[in-house]
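Q: I have 360 residues here and want to know how they pack in 3D. Can you give me a structure?
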Amino acid sequence: MRATSFKRCSSQQNPRWSLFTINRSTDFNAGIGKTEMLGRYNYLALVGGGKNPKFPQNKVVIWDDAKQKPAISLEFKTPVLRVRLSKARIIVVLQNSVHVYAFSTPPNRLSVYETSDNPLGLCCLGAKLVAFPGRSHGQIQVVEHDTGNISIIPAHSSPLRALELSRDGALLATASDTGTLVRVFSTSNCTRVAELRRGVDPAFVFSIAFSPSNKMLAVTSDKSTLHIFDLPSQSPQQAFSPTRRTASPSPAAEEAAVNKWGFLGKVPLLPRVFSDVYSFAHAHFEIGEEPSNGKQSYIPALGTSVGRPAKGMLGWTDESTILVVGAGQDGRWERFKIREDHEGKRFCLRDGWKRYLGAG
């Protein structure tokens, strides 16, 4: 099922996740498969979807919601998997390429980059750079807007599953389709600053999100678990090697490893799972039931924009509050808080939720 209408919202605080005010509701009476909002402006990127799409799935329409009409249209030979917008750029992600346009009328194509198979349309757009998969599985291309310089990060040995930039663009978090490890890189020198273990069993990572201060990282997966990790503190003097397993962990990160396995985390020569950095807190979130015909139910078919509803999408409203949002037949949002007990140990609990789709 695809939406036939959308509501344009403006944020009162953080433009990605916060308290929202509904400004306008638009009904197309036809399917909209993908949307991307340009901050608090009146422009949205729309791609058709569903059984009765409003627009072809290989076409991007930049919709001017104030004038209630298209402002820009872009057509491609294959389905559009994702669109990213900024005041200066339109980024269009296809199965094996990323197209960069200047946000102008008419739009001016600036660059085209080849990628490995990218069925999830992975792409992160920051104020100074854009990041997306490289030509080989597990690699990431980081492109600077001003100079056009391209850096390659060999993040994983298997295909990428998740990719996320911090709000200031300083850090980039990645996960592969194995889903056991999350790696964090510095975008300034492309070195690895942390490696975090979600678990031992493989999983599909749904979403990754940095806290506003870049001190913590939240991760969700198809295990229906929200994990929260500490990140190493950063300083200009620190230098990291991409061949190292992780940067020197913060005291809190070391404590997380010790708490997981006790003294075994400090015994040399044991398998690395005993010494890896684990989450300091975790909590259960609701995935909801969806019709499924196979194991990889949340991955869209190669070369198409038709996939399962998004689940476990993350956002921080402040340093202690996380929202987890899911679509589908049981669409809901859940709010989680990071608290401390009387001994100063942190934990995560759900303190609110609301179903906004489905029956009931």
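Q: Anything worth noting?
A: The helical segments are 251-261. The first helix runs from residue 251 to 261.
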